[in-house]
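Bug report (template v2)

What were you trying to do?
Predict the complex of my protein with 6-aminohexyl-uridine-C1,5'-diphosphate.

What happened?
Run completed; filing so the output is reviewed.

Input:
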Amino acid sequence: TTRTAEVHQNSTAGTLGPCPDTPPDLVGPLHVEFDTKRTLDRVREQVGSFLQLGGRFKPPNCVSKQKVAIIIPFRNRYEHLSHWLYYLHPILMRQQVDYGVYVINQDGEGLFNKAKLMNAGHVEALKEYDYDCFVFADVDMIPLDDQNLYRCFDSPRHLAVAVDKFNFHLPYNNLFGGVISLSKDQFLKVNGFSNTFWGWGGEDDDLYNRVMIRLKSISRPDSMIGRYKMIKHNRDLHNEVNPQNPYKVRETIHTFKTDGLNSLKYTVKEVKKDRLFTFISVDVHVPP
Ligand code: UDH
């Protein structure tokens, strides 16, 4: 009988069934609190043992339908990153996602370019694994319900629809920022983000325009499930509001075909594998 048991085990290895469309272990609304004593070391102790190096995970009992790269634009926000990793890793595990977390750090002190970091993250993640879905997530956005699925849908998805900072309402109907997902195919069809939005503002509206031009629609979870808590912070240095950006948003129709993934230039300075995430530092070629 021991032998039959062994044979049976071997024959099922490598033949896991697909994960169910609705993950069975979700808990719904979450309690989220930003404990100031939370550190990367502590979070590594708490969730690190469930992860592969680089912040990679695959559900042990089923095969995920999507391979999801989570792309976080980053510079000098380690405290926020600890909170993000503490909350998101367990949520993503319960959601049975086959995923990797990519922290895309802007090297140097030059003007921040979040959209270019997103494009670079997309390209770098694809060098590592055959991802078919990309979630672009601000480091300060923590979901308040694990039924908000970090995966891709028939249309590009806006996940952060009800943020505490905006009294859990959409501040304007076309908002497409904070946390979004696009399949690889959707992201390629819109030519990614623009590379030319320096400083704060507009790059998300420009992406919305690209999506509307090329794909016609976005999707959203309902506003109870799409609730988020934003970690409070002051405006960062070298990411001041850029008053030119709103003008650029009016030009998307003329610019998106030649400004995006197909014109992306950056230099990778460092790749570090932490247990909780892959850290990729990039020089985004800040104009002089
Ligand atoms: N980010 C960094 N470092 C920076 C700037 C931005 O990591 O120096 C990343 C981070 O993932 C952040 C995202 O880019 O979540 C978006 O930037 P942001 O948080 O500055 O943008 P947001 O619109 O806030 O959330 C704008 C400043 C609000 C100041 C409010 C003061 N009361």
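What did the reviewer find?
Residues 72-77, 112, 114, 138-140, 200, 234-236, 239 surround 6-aminohexyl-uridine-C1,5'-diphosphate (CB under 6 Å). Residues 213 and 253 are 7 Å apart (CA to CA).
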